[in-house]
Structure formats: C-alpha cells, structure tokens
Fold these 2 entries.
Entry 1:
Amino acid sequence: MSTDAGTMHREMDLLRFTTAGSVDDGKSTLIGRMLYDTKSIFEDQLEAVERASRTHGEEETNLALLTDGLRAEREQKITIDVAYRYFATPKRKFIIADTPGHVQYTRNMVTGASTAELAIILIDARKGVQTQSKRHGFIASLLGIPHVVVAVNKMDLVDWREDTYEEIVAEYREFCEKLDVTDLTFIPMSALKGDNVVDESENMPWYHGSTLLHHLENVNVGTSRNLRDFRFPVQTVIRPDQSFRGFAGRVASGTITPGEEILVLPGGTRTQVRTIETFDGPLKEASAGDSIVITTEDEVDCSRGDTIVRVNNLPTSATKVDAILCWMSDTPLEVGREYLLMHGTSERKIVIDNLNYRINVDTLHREDVEQLGLNDIGRVQIEAAQPLHFDPYQNNRHTGGFVIIDPRTNVTVGAGMIRSEVREAPRPEAAELVGQADGGPAREKSPNVVWEPWNIPRAEREKRHGHPAKVVWFTGISGAGKSTIARELEKQLWEAGKQTVILDGDQVRHGLCGDLGFSPEDRSENIRRVGEVARLFYEAGFIVLCAFVSPYRKDRQRVRELFPDENFVEVFVDVDAETARQRDPKGLYARHATGRVTGLPGLDAPYEAARDAEVRITRAQSVEDAARSVLASLDAV
Amino acid sequence: MTHYHKTHLDQLESEAIYIMREVAAQFERPVLLFSGGKDSITMVHLARKAFHPARIPFPLMHVDTGHNFPETIEFRDRLVESIDADLLVSHVQDAIDAGRVVEETGPHASRNGLQTVALLDGLKEHRVDAALGGGRRDEEKARAKERFFSHRDRFGQWDPKNQRPELWNLFNGRKAPGEHFRVFPISNWTEMDVWQYVAREKIELPSLYFAHERNVVVRDGVTLAETDFLYPVEGEESERKVVRFRTIGDATCTGAIASDAASVEDIIAEVAAARETERGQRSDDKRSEAAMEDRKRQGYF
C-alpha cells in the first residue's frame, strides 16, 4: 500500500451529521453543493440531473435534484423520509442523515439525529428565525447532539448584509440558552452561489469564521462517546465447539481489558475477562464502538439480552423509569396498554403508566394531553416486566435510548430517552440490600412498588369541583411575603368556592421534612418532596399554593416539570434583602446579625432569581393587590 | 486520545459486524445473498469476522441467471470450499422451465429482470426469514432511503412510505409469518470504502475486476463482454480490448470499462479519479429515471 490512495484510509475518520431545514430553506441545494464542490458527484449523476432539470422545466441545473430520491418526492418536490448521503475529503468521511423539516416529520428528524454527532440547522436569511428553526434546535438538544451548526442561508438574497446575519445570530443564540446545546456555531452562506460552503465567500468580507466544510472537517469527533462506563450488551453466544465459548457484542461505552473483574446483569454473576477475541487476533483493550468477543475465566450463565459491566461501575437497575418519548405511529399511544420495549439487545414487555404532558416542539410548552399522537413528544413513566439496566440518556446514548414496538403489528411506534428511575419509597428489605457489603450479588436499587393508575381521573374531579387543578409556586427570599400573599389568595379562592390547600416551609419542616437541614442537598430534597406532595393534591383536583424560598433554579425547574405548563404558575416575590430584613417576620435576620443563624439565601447563601416566572410581585404592591394579580394569571392560564 | 481513535473503515466494519450478529440472533433462517461481486465477497469476509472462531452460521445463496462469467462460478466454488460455508443456488432457468417467467428475446434480452422471481422462489423454498445483501446506499438514489433492516411483505415487496424508523443501533426484526427482511450491513459504505477495505484486509477478488484483454461488443454506449449468450448482431462488431469490470452481475448487462488497473491499489487510484458511478455502466438502470425504485418495489435485490 504505497500509493497515496492506499494510505489515505489510515488518516481518515468519520463524522455522522444530520441536516434539518424546511422545504424552501435550500437544504437539498446545500447538500447538492457539498457533494458537487467536493467532487462527490459523478458525470452520469450530473447528466441525469441536468436531464431531469430540463424535464421539470428549469433553466439552471437544479442541484437539489441530486438528493431528492424517491419518485413521490420528485413529484411533490419535497423530501419525505430520512435519506443518507456520503462524501469524503482526504481527512474525513461524512455520512449525512438528510431529514425533512416540515412539521409532520418530527419522527424522521429524531431518527436522523439519533446517530448524529453534529446537526446543521438551516435558516433562510430572508425569513429569519422561524418556529421550525427552534424545533430543530430543540430536537438536536433532546437527542444529545454535541455540535450544532446554524447555516444562515440565502445571504445573496439579503445583499450579503452583516446586520441581517447578526440579528439572526442574536435571536437564535438567546433561544438556545434554554436548551442543552454545548457547541453552537453560525455560518453565513449561499448554498446556491457556493459562498462559505466549501470555498470562502468574497461577498462577505466581514465574516472571519470557517467555511462549512472546513468546520465539518475539523470539529472534534467522538465527543459523544462515553469512555468511562463499560457497558457490553451481549448479542449472541459464539460456541463453535466444546472448547470455546465467547460472548459477542459491540462495546456500547467505556473500555475493557483482559483480567478485569466483570459482572453479568441481570443475575449479577461475577467473573474476570479472560480474552478479548477478534478475527485478527486477541486485543489488549477494547473501547466504545468495537465489535468483539469476550471470553471469561469462569463458565457463567450469560446470553443475548444480558449486559456485561465492570464490578465497580454499575448502571441503574429499575423496573420503573421516567422518560421522554417521541411517538412515531398513526395510532396514538395508549396509556395502560402493553407494548414491547427494545433496549440494547434485550426486549421486554412494558406498560406506559402515566403521561405527564406533551412538549409542544414549537413553543417548548408542556401541554396537558390525554394521549400522544404521531410526531408528539411527551414525558412518561414506564413500568417494565423485568428491570432495565440503563444509564440516563444524557450520559450514555446507547444504554439510555430505547424503541417501543407494537406487539400487534410488530411496527416500531416510539423512541425514548431515559431520564432516571422513578423514585419510590424503598421497602425495608430493599434498603438492606443496598447497604450490603461489596462481594454479594449486584445491588438491586429497584424496590418494585407496584404503581396503580389514579382511581378517579383528575378530569372527573375537576368536573365535580367546577374548576381545573392548578399549582401556584411562590418563590423569594425569607421575609419577601410569600406566605402572606398565598394566604390572602387562598381566602379569595375559597370565597369563590374553589378547592384549595396551602403548603409552606414551616409546615413541612415540622413534619414531612423534619429530618432535613439547610444544606444545599437538603434544600433540594425538601423541594423535591414538596413537589411530589403538590402533585398528589393536584391530581386530587386542588388549587395548590406552595410558598417556599426554593433558592435554586434547578429545584424549581424540577417541580415545574411535574406539571403541564397551563396548570403551573410560578410567582416570584421580588423583594430586596434590605426590605426583608426590616420586616423580618420570623426574626431570622436578627438572629443572623448576631451569628446564631447562617446560610440565609440572599445574604450569605445564594438565591437564584426566577427568570421565567409567570408573575412577578414587587415591594410596591399591597398584599391584596399582589393576590389579585396572581388570581388574574390563574384565570388567564 | 489517539488510542481510541477509530478510522472510518474500523467504524464501518464494526457496524457491519454488529448488524450481521443481530441477524444471526434475531432470525431463524437467514441467508447471505452472494452474487460473486466484490460487495458480496466483502460481506462474506465480514461474516467470517463476525462469528470467528465459529464458521458462518448461515448459508450463502446465489441467484444464478445462467448467464454468468465462468470466472464468477469458479471463484464462488473455491471460496465456499475454503471457508467451509454452505451454498444454496436458485436458478433462473428453473423459473423459466416451470413457465413462471418468460424470457426476453432479441439481441437486448437480459435475464436481470427475471432474477427477482428466482430470488423470491429461492427465499420461499428455503423458508428464509432474513436475506443479507451487499446493497449500498450510495449506489443509487432509491437506495439512499433504504433501512439496514428492510421489511418485505408476503409478496416480497418493499413499501418506501412505510419503513420502520431505525434509531441508535436498535434494529427491529419482528415480523408476521410469511414476511421476511432484507438486511444491508454495508449500507453506509461507498464504492471507495469497499476498495479501501479490500486493500486493507487483502481480500481476494475474481480476476474480472482487474484489467485483462477480451472480446467485447459495444452496444448503446455500454461495453459488454462477448460470450456464448451475447454476441454481435448486425451493425455491431467484436473488438479486442483491455478492460475490467466495476461490478459483476449478469454478463448480458454488466458493462466493462477501458482500464489498465491491474491491482487493488491501481483501482483505488482509478476510483478516486473516476467521473462516473459504478452503476453508470449497468444498462438495466438506464431504462427509466425511476427504474431502480420500480424494481425494488417488486422485490428486486
């Protein structure tokens, strides 16, 4: 292999990326341009496209025709499914998952994004940031794509203006702050004219960043690979004869070497890796992405569907999980019905216990719905017939992602990402097991408390009560007036004939949370418990008024995510520390001044101001006034 | 972390092995469709790697049009013997003899279209529930949307509008009785990837792929090998040329290109500089703009 071409492959790596854009953003033209300018298009393909362009009555050669594959698409002039394209430069091979942008094809975007390390989101410079541009960003974030490139296209049609570009950048950047996007890059371009796609633009001297291709060639690949947690889902057992027995699979994450202590889940049998076998000889180490065969020191019970892990790094094992689910079938998701869940190399029966809400992919609002339809994304709790051995999707795509299959049709109807196990009270014996010393079987975290759906649905209760259930969350520093306003509000609601309840800090700290202190961890746990209590009252059809300092944004967000948007109101009682000190209803500030109390939020401990609160109350408002403004917002929602 | 650096070939190979193992685990009676071309030879190599040290746990299946290059059959038999694989052959001639298909006549006659029937007959006869193929998405536009696990109904048909979504590395192979899957482990490979892999793995290929001298007939701009079943008609003449084949299919419709590439390295250099796709020399694709899509719907491989 002495020729250039022969040695080339040694240097090349691989980047999988996805492209999202609407019918008119010029996505197909952009891909056509990349293929054309990297000379990945052959003469006969170009001839076919030129021929087709003439048939379709177009004057210039339509590069978009290179990618719009199926006949139905050519007729409708839209892309209707995920299509895969390939091109390579001497540095890197690229796999493009080209997904359509219009609303009914969320499922395709999710599919294309599931294996991508980078997403290109197209924005038409003339139209600016559109609803669907946000949707694409949200899906990229949801699927954990590490790199996002925003291609601000059609710059030729806005006279290459920098201010137009900068406006789009500012608006989209602000939107992305709400998402989990770690690496965000903007590139102004014209796919039609070729500016900043492969070649630098002469029309936009004000832009000093990379061209798209340069960025694609140099972005760091493999960042989404988890090299920490060894997970090996067993695909099949290789047993040519009595002398050899090995477990075949692809390392989902982490690394492994011969001699390491391993454990087989479920079951928890321990042994050591004897060898890592391949056709090309044994390996000294295998890492995420390698297809290998593992042989073990001991004869262990292990077959397809089992997962091999390191003894000291276990995944979570639980039968009940909390997940984000994207529904991909015309037949809506039915809560309570039996489905099959495919996770790693295993399948198990499951039931969707509960649907918390649907996420509106355009507004990011959480909506109260009865079911999920095609292209809906929602948050659910799933109960499986046998424990799932998983990592949160955020940490591990391969052990946190799953698909749902309808056993009646065998069709893949949904795809999900596990957030966590569903927390439940441990049974005494389960608690003991967790405490057991190292050396026993795998510790089983799942207490297997059976979840029963609500006996009488909330909708029925709301009908009888004559009003919808709501949760109002008052946050603010001590002495801001949260409880005072909540009490006034409750009086007004009570007089109007509503079912209400107040939860406040002092109350729960004397009972439910009597075991907790004021450390950041205890404060978080306090709020978590209150959120769960609020949810019980909410499901019983009450208007729940919660008055808690709740100084951490993260904790408040976690409570917020338990409820549909329209039924949750956050009230930020925004009073400065000086005013609160003067009021000092509980004498906390006085005691703080003499050093008998420390860690007061807003003074010597953090209070993270609410940014997205639905209502903000200021010092200038009277209590009655404040209560009335909250009441008004309740009517509005 | 150069230690964990994986080249594109490492990743493509690992993906293909993963898919083959999924097929062996999820299906009861899979076969590997073997045409004698470089893609299916590469598939056999990958299958050996996937199940090493065991032998390949499913048979190879060859759809024989009867219009083969003799080199293909020789190569096939030698390969099967050397790796101790099982071989099933489904003959187009059988379908013709049974009157299930009517052979095209005239100088342009091709048995390529008849392969579909012989293929479906073979799958049915052996109750195959998954057929592994060497199809690649870069070959043709209609294939760009093909799944790794492609579901076929009881009539062997593909419905491009009703494909199962494939996320992460989860492949749903569940099916009703009578249905089957076509599975394409090297979907993500390009022609260049295959050649680079052939070079890296030192995979042996039939001599047809390398430059050699033979008698050819130029018909409709396609250079075809002169054989017992393809000969010059009026207005055509037999020529002696140095050629090689970029794909190997039915000898009546597989075009040769003028080339003096005599080694895999020469071919890689040639492919890198090539200005025409490999299917560009397949006269069967030229019949209409959507020719491939139509054949796939009917169950073509």
Note: Residues 8-26 of chain B form the longest helix (19 residues).
Entry 2:
Amino acid sequence: MPLDINQVFAPHVRTMTAASQRMELLAANLANADTPNYKARDIDFRAALQAADQASSVSMAATAPGHIQGAGGGRGRADVFYRVPDQPTLDGNTVDAQKESAAIAETATRYQASLSFLDQRIRGLRMAITGGR
Amino acid sequence: MDLFRIFDIAGSAMSAQSVRLNTTASNLANASSTAGKAEDVYRARNPVFQTVMAREGGDPASEGAAAGVRVVDVVESQLPPVRVYQPGHPEADPDGYVYTTNVNVVDEMVNMISASRTYQNSIEVMNTSKELMLRTLTLGQ
C-alpha cells in the first residue's frame, strides 16, 4: 500500500490551523476583558475543522466583486459566533475570564496533541527512511 | 500565522492595562492632595478602553478575526471634590474650607487588582502561544 504523505499529515495540520484560529479569538476575548460593551466571540471547533478541510481542497475562485462565497467562504476560516453570557454585567461586557482561560488550556492541549502525533509520524518516517541507523 | 497575532493582541491588552495601572498609581498618589479652589484640585483619572477591530476595511480573509484593545482617552471623574473645614490649613479659602480630591481609594484598589489580574492573564496567554510556537519549530527533531 503506497503511503500518501498528505493523508498522514493533513488531519493534524487542519487541527492545528483550527486551534490557532480559536486561540486568537480567545486571546482577543481576554484582552478585552475590561472593555465596556465588548461581546466575547468563539468558533465552533467542528465547523473550524470543516472550514480548514474545505480550504485545503479545491474551491471556486471569486474573481469579481459580485461573486458570493458560501458560509465560511471556503477561505479556511470558520464563522465566528458570539458567546451567550452566563450572567449579566453592568458594562455590557460578556467576557468570562475563567471560561476563556479554560478554553485556552483546552485549545493548547489539542494543539500539543496534534504536535505529538505529527512528531511521532515524522520519527516513524525517518526511521523507515534511514532504517534505524 | 494566527499564533503570531496573539502576541499583538496580548501585547495591546498589557499596554492598556499598564496605562490603567499608571492612572491608578497617579490617583492613589494624589489621594490626599488639597487645593484652595474646587476647580484647582486633582480629579481622579480613568482610562477608556476600546476594542480595535483587526484590519478595518482590509483583507476580507481577516474579517471576523480577533481584536486587540486600546486606550482611547483618559477622562477625569466628574464627581465633586470633597470640601473639608480646616481653618488652620495654609490653602484654606476665606471661609476656612479646603478642597480635597474626589479619588475613592477603595475604587482605586479594586481597579488595581482588576488591572493586574488581566495583565497576568495576558502574560499567561502569551506564554502559552509562545510554548506552542517553540514546540512547532522543533517538530521532527
């Protein structure tokens, strides 16, 4: 069975792309923890993975301003949603610092897991190439 | 690369919070300043935070992308200064009153704690993404 390098690496690369997108949004939420009327945003991880999947496959090119891209636009970015706050605040800010920290820890772990899998794959391939020497 | 942008975002939060800490320090330092006239006395200052939407009107691919924070203004509190009867005070007006600042020390302490917590959170975010990037760089070694 021939080994398709793309098949080996692609799922992890997609996870890392989605995770880094989410990290960016979560960092912005924490940065705006004290900004009045800021609404916390997040992405659906599953949707982000699918968006990253579409971006890596062939998509239609939007060559004129009238061309419409579908949801997520096939540009590798998932749609961003606003969080539903647990409790109201006087200044209209919906950032929950604890939730954001937890989500950052979770996303970082996902990213690190993908890194570990990739690392093992690379080690395995290298072992196969060099014959363990 | 998305992880690189986290440094800008967390950095903007850190600089905004340090402005806030600065105003808090200035308010606390002046908590017992006095003046002979109501309009001369020090008033508590507070920064106004605003979200910076990433690349306004720029690349549509970054639309919905994350945003930093900036200090748009530092405003003075409009609370009236406290009028204290101290006839022996060198700055007292003809009626024997001096004006002290409208700084509320408890408010300032709360501000200080909140600013330092958010600052710490930003550093945590920065450290996490730095670790992830460094690990990505050593991939396959």
Note: The radius of gyration of chain A is 19 Å.
